[in-house]
């Protein structure tokens, strides 16, 4: 079980620790660890290499492995302070990120609260106060393009330089590519989702892109046309291309069911705001207020304005058949 902690740095440099998972409850922070350091949004196959390198170093040194990441995402923090309208860009929630770390076999997740104190630390102060004095790291693994410290002046090479002075070793993972030479990056995932290519997003991620949220109440039109849809808010998540998708839904009770999802504004019914709504096959009871996770598997078609409600209903039935055939 992953032992996850939230760590907040106070103005005087002291650290406040809170357990984020049951396995961390009542435990102290680890004494010596080999850690992967980064934002790791998506935990894609490139990130996975960085984390696997930290785990390999931990095994060599006979100590615990850790991932050190940030919450909120540093970019979210800076954008929200700038006062500009923020275009949602996240590929994962913190809960999904922790599950991805656990799946890789990491012992600890140390989630640094990204706030005014942490963001003000220079690269040198971050390394000395956080990595050395508080976390006593013996080894740090990061990606070639990792940036840290106030104004992002710290680079992976600078981190290696600090390590030589502060008694920890470093490993910088080079840019990872797939079998065909395509760079494995968060931007590649975002571009794929933006262009309606969830398979490519899943190829880069090493698992399907998934949106997790609490089921909210809609206008209750869905059930009248025989296709009730569970709606979730996308919040900070990057918005995929509008349209209809084959999806797979993880329910709160542990069941995993095939499903079909529409993401868009529902022009046929005069919808004004975006909705992410999923009709789940084989479900026949209410799941309002429950958390579901919806994986995008295949893009079926763009969202359309139909001349009538009946025409829309007919098309939704065809979409459901397409999705069922995908799972057959
Ligand atoms: C598989 C599927 C495909 C859909 N495609 C469209 C579409 O192309 N155009 C559209 O206006 N609405 C589309 N919708 C949205 C319906 O208009 C919506 O589900 C209906 O209004 C019910 O809304 P409710 O969940 O608020 O009750 C689709 C819904 C589903 C489940
Ligand atoms: N097969 C199903 N797929 C999705 N939701 C279902 C299904 N069967 C029952 N439900 C429930 O019905 C609700 C959706 O019904 P709907 O009429 O579309 O209402 P709403 O407009 O509130 O989404 C879902 O939130 C869920 O609680």
UniProtKB/TrEMBL annotation:
Major enzyme class: transferase
Pfam families per record: FAD_syn, Flavokinase
Full protein name: Riboflavin biosynthesis protein
Pathway annotation: Cofactor biosynthesis; FMN biosynthesis; FMN from riboflavin (ATP route): step 1/1; Cofactor biosynthesis; FAD biosynthesis; FAD from FMN: step 1/1
Documented EC number(s): 2.7.1.26, 2.7.7.2
Source lineage: Bacteria, Pseudomonadati, Pseudomonadota, Alphaproteobacteria, Caulobacterales
Nucleotidyltransferase among keywords: yes
Catalytic activity: riboflavin + ATP = FMN + ADP + H(+); FMN + ATP + H(+) = FAD + diphosphate
Function summary: Catalyzes the phosphorylation of riboflavin to FMN followed by the adenylation of FMN to FAD.
Family listed: Belongs to the ribF family.
PANTHER family found in the cross-reference section: RIBOFLAVIN KINASE, RIBOFLAVIN KINASE/FMN ADENYLYLTRANSFERASE
UniProt keyword terms in alphabetical order: ATP-binding, FAD, Flavoprotein, FMN, Kinase, Multifunctional enzyme, Nucleotide-binding, Nucleotidyltransferase, Transferase
GO-annotated molecular function: FMN adenylyltransferase activity; riboflavin kinase activity
Source domain of life: Bacteria
Riboflavin kinase domain residues: 204-328
């Amino acid at each position: 079980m992953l032992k996850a902690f939230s760590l907040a740095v106070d103005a005087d440099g002291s650290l406040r620790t809170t357990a984020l998972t049951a396995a961390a409850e009542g435990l102290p922070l680890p004494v010596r660890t080999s850690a992967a350091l980064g934002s790791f949004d998506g935990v894609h196959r490139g990130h996975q290499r960085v984390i696997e390198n930290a785990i390999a170093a931990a095994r060599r040194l006979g100590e615990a492995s850790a991932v050190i990441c940030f919450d909120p995402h540093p970019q979210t923090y800076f954008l929200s302070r700038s006062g500009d309208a923020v275009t949602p860009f996240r590929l994962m929630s913190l809960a999904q990120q922790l599950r991805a770390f656990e799946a890789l076999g990491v012992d600890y997740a140390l989630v640094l609260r990204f706030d005014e104190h942490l963001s003000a630390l220079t690269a040198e102060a971050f390394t000395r106060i956080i990595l050395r004095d508080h976390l006593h790291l013996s080894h740090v693994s990061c990606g070639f393009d990792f940036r840290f410290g106030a104004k992002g002046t710290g680079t992976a090479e600078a981190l290696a330089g600090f390590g030589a002075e502060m008694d920890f070793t470093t490993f910088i993972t080079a840019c990872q590519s797939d079998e065909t030479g395509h760079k494995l990056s968060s931007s590649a995932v975002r571009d794929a989702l933006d262009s309606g290519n969830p398979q490519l997003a899943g190829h880069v991620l090493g698992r399907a892109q998934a949106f997790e949220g609490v089921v909210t109440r809609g206008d209750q039109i869905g059930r009248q046309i025989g296709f009730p849809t569970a709606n979730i808010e996308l919040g900070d998540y990057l918005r995929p291309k509008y349209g209809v998708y084959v999806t797979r839904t993880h329910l709160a009770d542990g069941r995993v069911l095939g499903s079909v999802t529409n993401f868009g504004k529902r022009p046929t019914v005069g919808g004004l705001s975006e909705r992410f709504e999923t009709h789940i096959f084989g479900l026949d009871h209410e799941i309002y207020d429950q958390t579901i996770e919806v994986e995008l598997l295949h893009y079926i078609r763009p969202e359309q304005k139909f001349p009538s409600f009946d025409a829309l209903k007919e098309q939704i039935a065809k979409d459901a058949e397409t999705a069922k055939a995908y799972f057959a």
